[in-house]
Amino acid sequence: SMRSLFYNCQALKEIKGATYFNTTSVTDMACMFYNCQNLDMTKLVEDLDTRSVTDMSYMFYSCEKLTTLNINKRGYIWDKASWQKVNSMFKYCSNLKTIYCNEDLSKSTTITDGTEMFAYCSSLVGGKGTTSGGSGLAMAHPDNSLVPGYFTGEETSTNQLYKIVVGDILHVRYDKESTLMGGISINYNLNEDDRNAVKTIKIDPAVANAQITSIDYAFYNLSNMTKVEGLQYIKTEYVTSMKYLFYAPLSKQYTATKIIPPTSQHRIICSKVAPL
Asked: Does residue 184 sit in helix, strand or coil?
């Protein structure tokens, strides 16, 4: 355990020999740097092995010298698989501006307490400019154009075609934000919870710029879906396969004419699709 190791060391400015810490078996880092107001720990904790840690609560509480922090997972470095408590982890870090992280902790299945994780972090800005929206675990994900967050993630180098469920809407997008949103390929199946949640599909206009060759399983088994917006943005001139595109169980078939209105702007060109 490293609980409260440097607790309330307000005058502490430097820790020599910290690289010799072996934290592979440490399970508790709660309050480790609690109120270390003058300690610049940016480099001190950048290679922290957290593979076994379950409690990170109050770890950086009131660490006023902390301005940036990279908690991206690199092997066992900042491994979050065992984390359970992150409540007040950065509370009162008033000068913390940037947290680099590509992971979405708000969807963690292990974290049970993330209350006030970012409370009173008055300088914190997400990668897309978010400065407000809450102080708890719900904001612990890369900031993106659909869902605001406090992490700064890394975009892809090129545009990607992907889909992502937010609430009851399935968004189909073509941009560089797939890693920020945790999006999946348009051909991959959604998990059961997401499939059941979807009521509306929204296809972004930028999708018209994607040269799509397959839309297999794109809207597979969305049995509660009743509306599609922007279907005209899926350009099918180069599509060779549409397997299970709008598949749904017979007991929950949706009405195709409501999903794809028979107007010219919604025509699907199937000239390259092999006969079914």
From this structure: strand
Helices (H) and strands (E) in the chain, counts: 3, 8
- Write down the pTM of the prediction: 0.85
Dump pLDDT digits (tens) for 153-200.
999 999 999 999 999 999 999 999 999 999 999 999 999 999 999 999
How many C-beta atoms surround the C-beta of residue 34 within 10 A? 22
The DSSP output letter for 60 is: T
Angle among Cα 41, 42, 45 to the nearest 5 degrees reads: 70
Helix (H) or strand (E) holding 229: strand 227-229
Residue 100: its H or E element: strand 98-100
Q: How far apart are CA 217 and CA 186, in angstroms?
A: 8
Question: 170: which strand partners?
Answer: 165, 201
Length in residues, the chain: 276
Contact 13, 37 (CB under 8 A): no
265 pLDDT higher than 60: no
Are the C-beta atoms of residues 223 and 248 closer than 8 Å to each other? yes
For 172, the enclosing helix (H) or strand (E) is strand 169-175
Asked if residue 170 lies in contact with residue 163, where contact means CB atoms within 8 angstroms, the answer is: yes
pLDDT tens-digit profile of 28-48? 999 999 999 999 888 889 889
Helix, coil or strand: residue 87: coil
Over residues 202-255, the pLDDT tens digits come to 999 999 999 999 999 999 999 899 999 999 999 999 999 999 998 876 556 555
Q: CA dist 206 to 11, 13, 66, 198, 237, Å?
A: 53, 50, 39, 21, 16
Instruction: Find out whether 237 and 271 touch, Cβ atoms under 8 Å.
Output: yes
**Scanning the structure block, which residue is given the tokens 């290679």?**
47
